[in-house]
């Protein structure tokens, strides 16, 4: 008896010659004959021993027969129209080659099994194996490659497609059309255009497949419903899973990694469940486009550019997911997404945690939002949303941010730790929130309130509010004023926040005697804020800027100590007509910087030990006077900045007194008002007579520098007797000295106004012309 065994699963028996059977019957009796007849009852046909081709064997087979195919290449297009089992001797060596025409193996009968073949080279647009209107077939352990499509099922049910390898098929690995209750499991698919494609098919199980390197979709469901997709490994495809116009499907416990666009993309699909998946390192983990009533839960998403993206989608539930380390956003709702529920998620270490853009009436509740690079929750042009009971901790910029026309939102019951709230919108309900265990004080349209205890203070459309003796630290912005006026912020300690104090579209406020330290921004005045007074504050060791004024005008900054801020002491950007006076500005990178800022006045500041004392870029028509500018790298740096009046300043021991780039400025007021004092220049007189100008370059010359520091204060021209006024006594003294010259007994150099070394009618006339004035 000759036996054939394959992978320990099947024992086959060849037909025996009748003489041998008869001989055995005679020798061992009737019982032996009876046993042999049972063993061969079903029959086994061997190709090519019994039939030269597989098709011939199929045509001749009885129902339920096994056709065993030996190693070899069979150039055939086989139609299986009998209930048979096709089994190969060896999967790599037993090849059915379709010759580039038609389907290689077409099954049109139920209960057909195909195991262990290499099936290749179908025609266009045909498949390697095609099941047409068949049920209960098993296709297993085949290698199906280099066809237009791998395995296709049309109008077929209750079939099993398992443990096959499908590679390099031009179209798909497996396609189902109008087919249901099929089981597709443990297959390996690589380098097909689609991995698995279901069209108008339902109640199928797709599990434990390995789908890699598809040119487009790993798994594509189109108008498909109630299918189960579980335990698959879907890696390195253009899109991992795409559900289009599909509903009621379950996508669970899949490993979806490094797909070029989306891990899961749902398009016009509803009532699908996505749960327990691992979705890592895709461009977007999950995207819903115009989808409704789907649930996404208990899924781990990491290292995607966007974790979960809802675009124009409504009524979806996103809960108990772990969304971490996204390069851009953890969860993003935009394009009028509404009525979605985002709850119980852990959203951490993304650039932004949860963002809403032009989205409405969503619920964001009970999430843990931690350590995102920018904002924990960011809303822009979004209204009617509920943000409640979230734990928001240690996000680097803002815990919760409402920007640009985000109104009618309810922000309540949130716990913010080392975080806070940023609001640049109105008409929101913000209540019962905690910042570092203390109340978040949010007032809108309030007046005459004194605030005594807070973790953070935000005022919107308020007036006459008093903030005194508060300690505000470890939040986003200690005090934020939005469209607020006549408010007094005094004697507070505001330290170690993202921003210390922010005035946004706010005017006529007083900020004084505060200690503003170790924030990113100490004080920020922006967006058309005007007539605010900032005085007597200690603004030190902020990591970016001490005071920053943007798009604002007519503000006064005086008598502050502005030291050891990492970048700018004071920075003005696109701002005009501000007065900066009497400040101590030391040990910053740049003491004062103006960027596109014109018409401002800087006077009597002490600007020392900065990298740049004063820096102007594209800034003109500013007045810089009476300042001590000492021991800086550059005393003053001007880049593309002209027509600034820079007079009566002391430039002392700066590494480079002036660095001028494409700029032409005014360095003196003529004689006798004079120019500046330069510690690296020798001249005589306060001011000097013009014989020794201080030359910066050909466009920048101080013609009348001062011999002494503050030389302009030693003697004021025209005030001959230095009594602080110009009157008849000065004119009388000049008349008495008329005709005197150097060495003459009546010579007085203070009366030689025009410095021509003689006292004459011209000098008397100059004094008389200024009669009644009080020198500065």
Which terms summarize this structure?
Pectate Lyase C-like, mainly beta, 6 helices, 776 residues, 28-stranded mixed sheet
Q: Any overview of this molecule?
A:
The structure is a single chain. The chain is mainly beta and 776 residues long. Helix content is 6%, strand content 43%. The strands form seven sheets. The protein has a 28-stranded mixed β-sheet, with no helix packed on it. It has an 18-stranded parallel β-sheet, with helices on one face. The chain has a 16-stranded parallel β-sheet with strand order 6-9-12-15-18-21-24-27-30-33-36-39-42-45-48-51. Strand 3, helix 3 and strand 4 form a beta-alpha-beta unit. The chain is elongated. Mean pLDDT is 92; it is low at 1-41.
Question: How does the SSE layout of this entry go?
Answer:
Blueprint: E1 3-6, E2 10-13, H1 18-28, H2 30-39, E3 44-47, H3 54-60, E4 66-69, E5 72-75, E6 78-80, E7 85-88, E8 94-97, E9 105-107, E10 113-115, E11 118-120, E12 127-132, E13 138-140, E14 143-145, E15 149-154, E16 160-162, E17 165-167, E18 172-177, E19 183-185, E20 188-190, E21 194-199, E22 205-207, E23 210-212, E24 217-222, E25 228-230, E26 233-235, E27 239-244, E28 250-252, E29 255-257, E30 262-267, E31 273-275, E32 278-280, E33 284-289, E34 295-297, E35 300-302, E36 306-311, E37 317-319, E38 322-324, E39 329-334, E40 341-343, E41 346-348, E42 352-357, E43 363-365, E44 368-370, E45 377-380, E46 386-388, E47 391-393, E48 400-403, E49 410-412, E50 415-417, E51 421-423, E52 429-431, E53 434-435, E54 438-444, E55 450-451, E56 456-460, E57 466-468, E58 471-473, E59 477-482, E60 488-490, E61 493-495, E62 499-504, E63 510-512, E64 515-517, E65 521-526, E66 533-535, E67 538-540, E68 545-550, E69 556-558, E70 561-563, E71 568-573, E72 579-581, E73 584-586, E74 590-595, E75 601-603, E76 606-608, E77 612-617, ...
Parallel strand pairs: 3-4, 4-7, 5-8, 6-9, 7-10, 8-11, 9-12, 10-13, 11-14, 12-15, 13-16, 14-17, 15-18, 16-19, 17-20, 18-21, 19-22, 20-23, 21-24, 22-25, 23-26, 24-27, 25-28, 26-29, 27-30, 28-31, 29-32, 30-33, 31-34, 32-35, 33-36, 34-37, 35-38, 36-39, 37-40, 38-41, 39-42, 40-43, 41-44, 42-45, ...
Antiparallel strand pairs: 1-2, 53-54, 85-86
Helix pairs in contact: 1-2, 5-6
